[in-house]
Q: What sequence folds into this?
């Protein structure tokens, strides 16, 4: 049998394997490619459609956080708002009472030794934040009276303690606080932090139920109207309460008829001393 040369096959238009014309093979190949493309088109469209839907629903973390913050601040409606003018008024009142500010640790210790500042101790009714050092667990006597009164009344109702986060501070401490807390008041000037005078306490709001917090608000409101305290609800989780020396007047015992006719030396001078 005669074997046909390779070049004759290539130029004859026949297949090497089947001997069919090459034009038929070419048409079959084109048909196969078109079929494959048609099968792939729906899946490609599905992928693109899925990508579009996914892209449309994607929300960046920063946008989500911004929305949550906006919602939080839009609901902020304090009963005792703070302001620049209020800080000026508080400092003016402390100046009238001639209360010195604690500039440094040495001055703080001297005030504690002289009992101008008195210690605040923990109890079942009142807790103190662990990060508050022993030398800073002090305040003015009338501020301690206020703390004992409100914590006792709160415990009687809810059988749980209040927590103190901050008491007296020094100017050095306040400057350090300002470096990482933009809510902190300055250490000097007419809006200086009242913590420096030892009259102020920060009560923690963490863990309080709405009922408990509304009770605290109701407790403070009449005292504010009488000029005994000046609370400020901060955006931080604390309730900032300035207690004026006038609060100590509520501890003065009523006088008998015989004593009422005689003016005391303190009354003649126009003030009543605070209780230790």
A:
């Amino acid at each position: 049998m005669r074997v046909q040369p390779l070049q004759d096959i290539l130029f004859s238009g026949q297949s090497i394997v089947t001997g069919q014309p090459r034009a038929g093979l070419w048409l079959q190949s084109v048909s196969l490619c078109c079929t494959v493309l048609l099968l792939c088109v729906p899946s490609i469209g599905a992928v693109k459609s899925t990508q579009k839907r996914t892209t449309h629903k994607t929300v960046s973390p920063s946008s989500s956080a911004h929305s949550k913050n906006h919602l939080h601040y839009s609901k902020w409606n304090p009963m005792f708002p703070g302001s620049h003018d209020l800080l000026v008024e508080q400092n003016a009142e402390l100046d009238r009472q001639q209360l010195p500010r604690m500039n440094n640790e040495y001055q703080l210790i001297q005030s504690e030794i002289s009992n101008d500042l008195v210690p605040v101790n923990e109890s079942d009714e009142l807790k103190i934040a662990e990060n508050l050092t022993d030398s800073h667990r002090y305040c003015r006597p009338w501020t301690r009276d206020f703390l004992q009164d409100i914590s006792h009344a709160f415990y009687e109702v809810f059988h749980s303690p209040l927590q103190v986060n901050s008491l007296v501070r020094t100017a050095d401490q306040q400057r350090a606080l300002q470096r990482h807390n933009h809510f902190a008041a300055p250490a000097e000037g007419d809006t200086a932090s009242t913590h420096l005078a030892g009259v102020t306490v920060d009560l923690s709001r963490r863990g309080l139920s709405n009922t408990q917090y509304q009770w605290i608000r109701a407790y403070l409101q009449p005292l504010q109207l009488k000029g005994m305290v000046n609370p400020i609800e901060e955006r931080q989780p604390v309730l900032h309460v300035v207690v004026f020396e006038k609060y100590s007047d509520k501890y003065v015992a009523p006088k008998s008829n015989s004593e009422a006719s005689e003016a005391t030396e303190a009354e003649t001078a126009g003030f009543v001393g605070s209780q230790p």
